[in-house]
Structures are given as structure tokens and as C-alpha cells.
Design goal:
This is Co-chaperone protein HscB homolog. This protein is an all-alpha fold. It has helices at 6-9, 20-34, 44-65, 67-77, 91-110, 113-137, 144-172.
Length: 173
């Protein structure tokens, strides 16, 4: 089965800025229509096709709902494949990441849940700035390098954000 454009699955125009509530609503509707249980009495072929469609829909949804994954996907649609493991060649950004990780480690050691909340808010603001930067440049072929750098930074902040959520869960228990 050919892999359709993820945006087309949800009847959306390819773009970075998405209404995530609209995406979620379309996903739920399509998931109901393509759920493999609806094909329990169908032929083996139809059950397999339904399972493939459901898996494809899940992959598309997971990709499009994440800003960094959506950004990577958009660049891929434009023919610019980024390796999964990418490095950032910006010493100032890398230093900032080290400082943020040290701050997060201090928050963990002090079990400062309110500090983690403030950290999370600052991290979200940084992610929003990267998202805005990517939205402004991804369609301009002359700014492709900038778009790729922003995606790499987005991935770093996603990983840090995941670590913050894990720390919040541990401290909240």
C-alpha cells in the first residue's frame, strides 16, 4: 500500500500551523471509521487493509500533532530528509542546553515542584519561539538551512520537555 501524504489523510493542506483540536477531531472520526474491530467479520484481506489503514492513521496523527515531527515531515515532503540523530553545530545553543539540564537536575535534587512548573513554562516559551521561527521560514528554499537548524533545536527541547514531564510525575507521586 502506498504511503499517502499525512495531511491528505486528514483533508488538510500541508502547513506547519495546524488547529490541533481540528486535527484531533478528524483523527477520532477517522479512527472510528477504520478501526479494525469494525472489520472483524470481513475477509482476511479486508481485515489486513483495515489494520494497515489504522496503523497509517496513527502514525500520521502522532507525526502531525508534534510540532517538531510535523516540521521534519514538512521538510521531508520538500525533499530534505534529516537524519534521525542530528547534532546541533551552535555552541551557544549547546551551552544553553547544558545550563537547562543542570537547572533541571538541581530542581530534581531539591524536589522543587513549583520550580519545575516555572521551568516548564520557560521551556514552552522557548519551544513557541522555535515553532514561530520555523513557521516563518520552512517554505522559503533560500532559508532551508535555517529551517533544518530550527528542527534540530526543536528536537532537543522536545527531549528536555519529556524529561520535565517525567520529573513532574515523580515529584507529584
Amino acid at each position: 500500500m502506498a504511503k499517502p501524504c499525512y495531511f491528505a489523510l486528514f483533508d488538510l493542506q500541508p502547513g506547519f500551523r495546524l488547529d490541533l483540536n481540528e486535527l484531533s477531531a478528524r483523527y477520532r472520526e477517522l479512527a472510528r471509521q477504520t478501526h479494525p474491530d469494525r472489520f472483524a467479520d470481513a475477509s482476511e484481506h479486508d481485515r489486513r487493509v483495515a489494520l494497515e489503514r489504522a496503523a497509517q492513521l496513527n502514525d500520521a496523527y502522532q507525526t502531525l500533532r508534534s510540532a517538531s515531527q510535523r516540521a521534519r515531515y514538512l521538510l521531508t515532503l520538500r525533499g530534505h530528509e534529516l537524519p534521525l540523530e542530528t547534532t546541533v553545530q551552535d555552541p551557544a545553543f549547546l551551552m544553553q542546553q547544558m545550563e537547562l539540564r543542570e537547572e533541571l537536575q538541581d530542581l530534581q535534587e531539591s524536589a522543587d515542584l513549583s520550580g519545575v512548573g516555572a521551568f516548564k513554562k520557560r521551556l514552552k516559551q522557548a519551544q513557541d519561539r522555535l515553532n514561530d521561527g520555523f513557521a516563518d521560514c520552512w517554505e522559503d528554499p533560500a532559508r532551508r538551512g535555517e529551517a533544518e537548524r530550527l528542527v534540530r533545536r526543536m528536537q532537543f527541547l522536545d527531549k528536555l520537555s519529556s524529561e520535565v514531564r517525567q520529573l513532574e510525575e515523580r515529584l507529584d507521586d
